[in-house]
Amino acid sequence: NAGVTQTPKFRVLKTGQSMTLLCAQDMNHEYMYWYRQDPGMGLRLIHYSVGEGTTAKGEVPDGYNVSRLKKQNFLLGLESAAPSQTSVYFCASSYSRGAAYEQYFGPGTRLTVT
Amino acid sequence: GENVEQHPSTLSVQEGDSAVIKCTYSDSASNYFPWYKQELGKRPQLIIDIRSNVGEKKDQRIAVTLNKTAKHFSLHITETQPEDSAVYFCAASVDTGRRALTFGSGTRLQVQP
Question: How many Å apart are CA A101 and CA B36, to the nearest integer?
Answer without folding.
Answer: 13
